[in-house]
């Protein structure tokens, strides 16, 4: 149960050193520096070209920035000292987003305020990113391979109840990073805390991918050895910042070495975005989750005004264009709001709706996470279980997302870039 007072508990807030690592020079008197971070191999080749260097040096830059995760040009030891100096003198910096604050939950989840500077902006702005050492089980049953993973920093706080309510132990234990795509959000879903911010701005490619690198670095994740899942389910609507979202995915796949099959993007149902997404080459396409959240258009448009523009049918039609991988399923996310969307009649309606789509699909149930100023209530545990049992009884693969980090406002829909809630 959420207690806003807990969020302000200083023991949960881990203050980080304000100094930049290795004395990184953020900007000089000539104004803001240009970040290398976020540029793809081609753009890095062009940077080298401008300095009169051969384009193959892009490989050294990519390796240093995206694989070794250097935070400062001075650390790129594969380049000569004079070339490093030349890069800095030309106004470049690594410019990777940095973790400015950490909130730790009793369940091992960490919520970060990641410092970004918009292009040319002088003031740092923060965006939220979440690390769940064992994930939240949202990825179960959607086609992710289920070989026994290495658990990353798991705190060992599993409850029996969750173990018995969800499938297999071997399928759990997978670290997940929840990534933001915008500062705030314009979609205005009535149950979501992020909506309260409105849309402040889109994040750039570097700011989206940089959240991932900053967390991989903090958690000492070795890509290729350790399993990690990404969910684009933080602040914002990824399909309303489509190009930068896709640019970040490409960078994370190509240069960082992460698999798109371990990435899931969630959308509130932006039809043109889903249509573009269906055209993406499969080697750069994450899995898709649709925030359904209601059993029919009538209820959905009350909760999600976007439904007036794109109703359930138009969203489903767009999703049908996706060429699913073998065993891949589309996820329908469904937030259970006490008394509003959690009744058995709703469960039966959802089962019929999902079956009618004809899609290889599964449902992820999320018990609503409360937030200040939002007048809904959490569903009763009995209602959640009955809802789940009904869907399963109707033959729909259904999973319950574990609430992670509620005590630090890290759970779904609780991200609002706040220290005290
Ligand atoms: N904007 C995208 C992705 C971010 S929201 C989207 O809406 O899909 C990620 C998920 O959190 C969505 O499924 C959304 O319905 C859910 N969510 C939002 N607020 C919530 C809350 N207060 N409690 C539980 N889930 C919430
Ligand atoms: Fe935006 Fe998603 Fe929140 Fe809706 S649920 S307001 S789309 S972040």
Report on the structure:
With 421 residues, this protein is α/β, with parallel strands linked by helices. Helices cover 29% and strands 18% of the residues. It contains 12 helices and 17 strands. The chain has an 11-stranded mixed sheet with strand order 1-6-7-8-9-12-13-14-15-16-17. It has a two-stranded antiparallel ribbon with strand order 2-3. Strands 4-5 form a two-stranded parallel sheet. β13 (263-267), α8 and β14 (287-291) form a beta-alpha-beta unit. The longest helix has 15 residues, at 242-256. The structure holds S-adenosyl-L-homocysteine and iron/sulfur cluster.
Q: Strand pairing plus helix content: what structural class?
A: alpha/beta
Low-pLDDT regions:
1-29, 145-173
Shape: elongated
Q: Whole-number radius of gyration?
A: 22 Å
Described by strand count, sense and barrel closure, the largest sheet is: 11 strands, mixed
Helix content: 25-40%
Q: Number of helix segments?
A: 12
Mean pLDDT: 85
Strand numbers in spatial order across the main sheet:
1-6-7-8-9-12-13-14-15-16-17
Q: What's the total number of strands?
A: 17
The arrangement of helices and strands along the chain is HEEEEHHHEEEEHEEEHEHEHEHHEHEHE
How far apart, in Å, are the first and last alpha carbons?
Answer: 14 Å
Please state roughly what percent of the residues sit in beta strands, choosing from under 5%, 5-15%, 15-25%, 25-35%, 35-45% or over 45%: 15-25%
Bound molecules: S-adenosyl-L-homocysteine, iron/sulfur cluster
